[in-house]
Design brief:
The chain is α/β, with parallel strands linked by helices and 226 residues long. Helices cover 27% and strands 27% of the residues. It contains five helices and 14 strands. It has an eight-stranded mixed β-sheet, sandwiched between helices. Strands 2-3 form a two-stranded antiparallel ribbon. A two-stranded antiparallel ribbon has the order 7-8. The two termini are 20 Å apart. The structure holds cytidine-5'-triphosphate and calcium ion. The site of cytidine-5'-triphosphate has 15 residues, from helix 3 and strand 9. Keywords: Decarboxylase, Flavoprotein, FMN, Ligase, Lyase, Magnesium, Metal-binding, Multifunctional enzyme.
Length: 226
């Protein structure tokens, strides 16, 4: 692989990519979110589209420009993200790059919560649907299901376990411990974890990682064909 190698053609194939954070409402004016920038997911969607794929990008709120040349589905919550992904199936490739909130407020208030004599409200949380796992087990499962693993310790160990637990094909493991400064940043250091083992990728711009992933996807489909 070389950064300036032309992108392989994936014409005729459909990819669904999730990106960004999700926003989980507390009440009509407040939400729980995370620091995901959407840079990696948006870059992957753009690189796959540049290789000729039809791309559906399902994204939570980000500062990234709406990318051209793809079907863009903006959503806010994890439940909305799952519904949009489900509606976009079938696909040949799924890339779960979103930082989906693990929990949402069990019953978000219909009206703005007010301060009162009772003191601060207790937030009762409930688990969100696991979109990557749902896609991996879906009757319309894409041939290639790729997830990310954001870890702050034991990165490869956790990523390998996550790949098996989710039932996906590949995991891009991402060290997001604060000292790496990668969460929300422009660069990352990824490890491609497959059934065959671990391939470390160089520390690089997220746009370069997106092109590298596109090459790996094209290689996967070309060996399928032969
Ligand atoms: N993911 C998802 N839906 C969720 C949670 C995570 O689709 N509700 C996806 C992410 O997009 C990512 C992968 O699952 O591709 C792993 O996300 P991560 O947060 O690292 O894993 P979790 O299974 O949520 O485990 P934990 O946060 O406890 O490490
Ligand atoms: Ca999580």
């Amino acid at each position: 692989f070389h950064q300036h190698q032309p992108l392989p053609s994936l014409v005729g194939k459909h990819a669904i990519v999730t990106s960004g954070p999700t926003h989980e409402p507390i009440d009509p004016v407040r939400y729980i979110a995370n620091r995901s920038s959407g840079k990696q997911g948006h870059a992957i969607a753009a690189a796959l589209a540049a290789a000729g794929m039809r791309v559906t990008l399902v994204s939570g709120p980000t500062q990234e420009p709406v990318p051209a040349g793809m079907d863009f589905k903006p959503i806010e919550s994890a439940q909305q993200m799952l519904a949009a992904v489900d509606a976009a199936l079938p696909a040949d490739v799924f890339v779960g790059a979103a930082a989906v909130a693990d929990w949402r407020v069990a019953s978000a208030a219909d009206q703005k919560l007010k301060k009162g004599a009772d003191g601060p409200p207790a937030l009762v949380l409930t688990e969100n649907p696991d979109i990557l796992r749902t896609v991996s087990q879906h009757p319309k499962r894409p041939a290639l299901v790729i997830g990310f693993a954001a870890e702050t310790e034991k990165v490869l160990e956790h990523a390998a376990a996550k790949r098996v637990r989710k039932g996906c094909d590949w995991i891009l493991a991402n060290d997001v411990s604060p000292e790496t400064g990668t969460f929300g940043g422009t660069h990352s250091r990824l490890f491609l974890v497959t059934a065959a083992g671990v391939t470390p990728w160089p520390h690089s711009a997220k746009t370069d990682a997106a092109r590298r992933l596109t090459h790996a996807v094209a290689e996967y489909f070309s060996t399928m064909r032969d």
